[in-house]
């Protein structure tokens, strides 16, 4: 188990190094002077331009610039946003909390709802399965931004049940969470139900039933455990979908967060912030994959012997 985690950590270091290298390459391949690229549409004094050249080592050979940039990233220095007039790390850190709150709540709701629906609909009457499948198809087909607009129009503007904008309080979190969680829930439900139906056909399930175990008990204690590994795999992949959905949802509901910050940075050509978000995404990818690997080993002890 430890060896597998260490192997994953080694791979993660290579992924992060690749993300840093791609960011550095993009900075230097962008048309125009590097200083002008970094400051975007901001107007700075000659002193500030000289400071940028010194900070990034732009008067040094390219490999020295790369080493300087790599060292800054390793120290947690993601550079300065000359449009926000603050360090990139501070700008991202200030927006990270609301985004983590939205992402965590959305994934939690999606996992709970999809698990419940899968258990209740697996191997039921055809019309129940058909209705569930059709609803899942509709849910996964509707774009997240369109779902968010519909929720905002109906439950905020017309009914007035939830606030239309902002991120203060639990009520302001409800509609954004539904918008982000809907496509995740539909995909998880479909995959888990199919896995449960295959598992419920296995001989050990019949053995459990002959021992007097109830149908719900069989589903919870035996069948569900066999679909946890593919479920965890899919959840890990869906984290990327969650991040993408949050960009649109934060913009529609005027919520603070990384998505809102990213759109503002792209629109204002604030490349240091964009590069910082790219590195943050790489870190998120690494963390999610490590967590998924650890969960594999905890869910299925047989995998420990294969490491």
Automatic annotation (TrEMBL):
Q: Which CDD domains match?
A: TM_PBP2 (cd06261)
Q: From the Swiss-Prot or TrEMBL record, what is one GO molecular function term?
A: dipeptide transmembrane transporter activity
UniProt keyword annotations, A-Z: Cell membrane, Membrane, Transmembrane, Transmembrane helix, Transport
* Keyword Transport attributed: yes
* Signal peptide (residue range): none
Q: Where in the cell is it found?
A: Cell membrane
Q: Does the keyword Flavoprotein apply?
A: no
Task: List all membrane-crossing ranges.
Answer: 12-30, 102-122, 134-155, 161-184, 227-253, 273-299
Q: Which residues form the ABC transmembrane type-1 domain?
A: 96-296
| Top-level lineage group | Bacteria
Q: Name one GO cellular component term.
A: plasma membrane
How does this protein sit in the membrane?
Multi-pass membrane protein
Per the similarity annotation, which family is this? Belongs to the binding-protein-dependent transport system permease family.
- Its name, as the record gives it, is ABC transporter permease subunit
In its UniProt entry, the species of origin is given as Herbidospora solisilvae
Origin organism lineage: Bacteria, Bacillati, Actinomycetota, Actinomycetes, Streptosporangiales
């Amino acid at each position: 188990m430890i060896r597998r985690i260490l192997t994953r950590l080694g791979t993660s270091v290579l992924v992060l190094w690749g993300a840093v290298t791609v960011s550095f390459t993009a900075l230097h391949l962008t048309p125009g002077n590097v200083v002008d690229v970094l400051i975007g549409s901001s107007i700075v004094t000659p002193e500030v331009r000289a400071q940028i050249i010194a900070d990034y080592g732009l008067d040094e050979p390219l490999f020295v610039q790369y080493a300087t940039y790599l060292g800054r990233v390793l120290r947690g220095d993601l550079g300065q946003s000359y449009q926000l007039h603050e360090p990139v790390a501070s700008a991202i850190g200030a927006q990270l909390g609301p985004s983590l709150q939205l992402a965590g709540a959305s994934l939690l709701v999606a996992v709970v709802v999809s698990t419940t629906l899968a258990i209740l609909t697996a191997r039921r009457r055809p019309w129940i399965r058909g209705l569930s499948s059709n609803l899942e198809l509709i849910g996964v087909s509707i774009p997240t931004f369109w779902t968010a607009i519909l929720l905002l129009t109906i439950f905020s503007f017309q009914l007035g049940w939830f606030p239309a904008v902002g991120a203060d309080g639990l009520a302001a979190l409800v509609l954004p969470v539904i918008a982000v969680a809907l496509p995740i829930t539909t995909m998880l439900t479909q995959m888990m139900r199919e896995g449960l139906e295959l598992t419920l056909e296995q001989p050990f399930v019949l053995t459990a039933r002959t021992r007097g175990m109830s149908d719900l008990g069989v589903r919870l204690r035996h069948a569900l455990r066999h679909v946890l590994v593919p479920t965890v795999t899919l959840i890990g992949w869906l984290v990327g979908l969650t991040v993408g959905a949050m960009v649109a949802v934060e913009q529609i509901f005027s919520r603070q967060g990384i998505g809102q910050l990213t759109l503002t940075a792209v629109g204002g050509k604030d490349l240091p912030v964009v590069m910082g978000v790219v590195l943050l995404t790489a870190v998120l990818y690494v963390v999610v994959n490590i967590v998924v690997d650890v969960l594999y080993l905890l869910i299925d002890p047989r995998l420990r012997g294969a490491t």
